[in-house]
Predict the 3D structure of the following.
Amino acid sequence: MIKWTHIILHHSLTEDSQTVSWNAIRKYHLSKGWYDIGYHAGIELVGDEYVIMAGRPLNMQGAHTKGMNDKALGFCFVGNYDLTSPPAAMLVKAAAYIKGWMDELNIFSENIHGHRDYANKTCSGTKFDIPMFVELLR
């Protein structure tokens, strides 16, 4: 079993269309020759409800953050959070899910980061307040 020590937050950079976009992200990742979607889980608005979407199993290394895939779980927020802040309801639901990972795998809140901390990207979005999100996890 992989020893997970970090969680990396991402955004899809796509507009959440209120239909299931997760499969489109999976299809895109497969087109790059990857085994499966690169993230371990994600969240998106489906109809009028935020739904957690399963990605890679926890016993499989991710493909989401170069240099961190062997120790960090990847979680993707569907939407473009360079343009707008993620909705509070989305953050609360995602935080409850991620808190479950943290409790089960003994991951500390200091080890929750945006993809931007490891790459020249804005991910998880310039309007995604990571310190505020981490406070939801405490």
Summary: The chain is about 25% helix and 20% strand. The chain has one domain: 6-136. The first helix runs from residue 22 to 31. The mean pLDDT is 92.
